[in-house]
Amino acid sequence: MKHIFDGLERRRASARLGGGQKRIEAQHARGKLTARERIELLLDHGSFEEFDMVVTGWGTVNGRAVFVFAKDFTVFGGSLSETHAQKITKLQDMALKNRAPIIGLFDAGGARIQEGVAALGGYGEVFQRNVMASGVIPQISVIMGPCAGGDVYSPAMTDFIFMVRDTSYMFVTGPDVVKTVTNETVTAEELGGASVHTTKSSIADRAYDNDVETLLQMRRLIDFLPSSNQDEPPEWPAFDEVDRLDESLDTIVPDNPNKPYDIKELIHKIVDEADFFEIQDAHARNIVIGFGRIEGRTVGFVANQPLVLAGVLDIDASKKAARFVRFCDCFNIPIVTFVDVPQAWREAAVRIRRSDGAESDGHHAKGVRRRL
Ligand code: HXC
């Protein structure tokens, strides 16, 4: 019997090494951690219960259950095989059944080319569960390496996407394949780096400098979120006095409506312990969104930012705020809105005056003013 257990342990030890020592070293040389090292940092120490000897399982973040999978780039570039898909979907089913958040750590090249349609079918199953879980449990994707194909499409369907600067990318396919197919030379950063996705496309919600910082920030985010749409947002001990007065709030907002000020300064002064988790800080900066706590309970903030474009609502700002409000609505998170758009009706009125002529502008301008 002993030799059977010894054999099993040998196999487990070799499975724990993923693609082998050499590939682990290559991963470290790129400034990236391995799948298991990442999980170790994300979860409470010693809480990870691994399923099926691949890097999927559950553990806790500050005592609350989360389900987690980490793609292992050292094994076929983390690409998704039929079996790999079965393991992910099993975890998705368990997270949904247990009504607990699911976090995916992505470092993977999409469908495993060698498996063809079987791998593509696997993605169909993963995507289906992304849809079923939407609005029921929080789904968080962390992009921690070069990700292509299905390893971008599935995250795109989840609630939040975070990236690591300079080591993570999201694209349909990598620069080498682009070069072969279209003869176009493009860098990974231009094709889908954090600089593109956090500012222009707004696919990613935030980027951090390295794996460690990113994972620690994910622990912070989880603390703000309810486990499911049937749960209340978590309540943490608050050390801020409920009746704390902040005199500076009287002066932050200037009397002169043409004078800009930083709405984030105001939010930081209002939330418990100045702890504000901003979402999409680099995109549509004329609106600010994010989570904070009041009396220990999570609140979503939506605020015009007078410092950028006078805080006007344009298409990007509206989409950014609307998506966030939808998330808060799904998960019973109350919303505090700070409205300050003195420029908006004036600019709208000027535009109407320019297009309609002097006769009608008074009437339209009043209409605009009333609506705002
Ligand atoms: C099999 C893959 C793979 C894949 C990477 N590898 N992607 N193996 N299937 N999809 C392997 C490589 O062959 C290599 O193995 C190892 O992983 C590391 O990859 P490198 O290319 O050396 O690394 P890097 O230069 O960092 O580039 C990573 C990459 C690139 C950007 C992900 O490998 C790439 O562009 N791969 C192709 C991605 C792609 O087209 N995926 C789309 C799949 S279709 P060796 O042994 O040589 O070290 C899809 C559609 C889903 O996902 C839709 C479902 C409905």
Write the layout of secondary structure elements.
Elements: H1 2-16, H2 21-29, H3 35-42, E1 49-51, E2 56-61, E3 64-70, H4 82-98, E4 102-106, H5 117-133, E5 139-143, E6 146-148, H6 150-156, E7 160-164, E8 169-171, H7 175-182, H8 188-192, H9 194-197, E9 206-208, H10 211-224, H11 249-252, H12 263-270, E10 277-279, E11 287-294, E12 297-304, H13 315-330, E13 335-338, H14 342-356, H15 358-371
Parallel strand pairs: 3-4, 4-5, 5-7, 6-8, 7-9, 12-13
Antiparallel strand pairs: 1-2, 2-3, 10-11, 11-12
Helix pairs in contact: 4-5, 14-15
The structure holds hexanoyl-coenzyme A.
Notes on the structure:
The chain is α/β, with parallel strands linked by helices and 372 residues long. The protein has 2 domains: 2-222, Alpha-Beta Complex (2-enoyl-CoA Hydratase, Chain A, domain 1), CATH 3.90.226; 249-365, 2-enoyl-CoA Hydratase, Chain A, domain 1 (Alpha-Beta Complex). The protein has helices spanning 2-16, 21-29, 35-42, 82-98, 117-133, 150-156, 175-182, 188-192, 194-197, 211-224, 249-252, 263-270, 315-330, 342-356, 358-371; strands at 49-51, 56-61, 64-70, 102-106, 139-143, 146-148, 160-164, 169-171, 206-208, 277-279, 287-294, 297-304, 335-338. The chain has a 7-stranded mixed β-sheet with strand order 1-2-3-4-5-7-9, sandwiched between helices. It has a 4-stranded mixed β-sheet with strand order 10-11-12-13, sandwiched between helices. Helix 4 (82-98) packs parallel to helix 5 (117-133) and helix 14 runs antiparallel to helix 15. Residues 357-372 have low confidence and may be disordered. The structure holds hexanoyl-coenzyme A. The site of hexanoyl-coenzyme A has 20 residues, from helix 5, strand 6, helix 6 and helix 7.
